[in-house]
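Hi R.,

Here's the chain you asked about this morning:
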Amino acid sequence: MVKHIVLFKLKDNSLENCLKAKEVLLSMEGKVPELKSIEVGIDYLHSERSYDVALIVTVEDELALDRYQKDTYHCSVVKTHMHAVRSSSVAIDYII
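And the predicted structure, written out as tokens:
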């Protein structure tokens, strides 16, 4: 299994925009077949080092991660939205 985690800093990190980002990210459930699990969290501390939104997904293996990264819905809807609203992001992928 592979865990894929992405942290997003939003250009406008108002609660409304964070909730919209969460909604868009969670919309992958049932639409992206590679996802074994998905979790999205919104930061509440708002410290200087905080990111605003966290995406945590689990996929079967490295090949599934590659398919997830290229998935039509993921690319056309989710990435399009997140790239438009984020100021930066960081990611980590690891085997569990």
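The two ends are 5 Å apart (CA to CA).

Let me know if you need anything else.
M.
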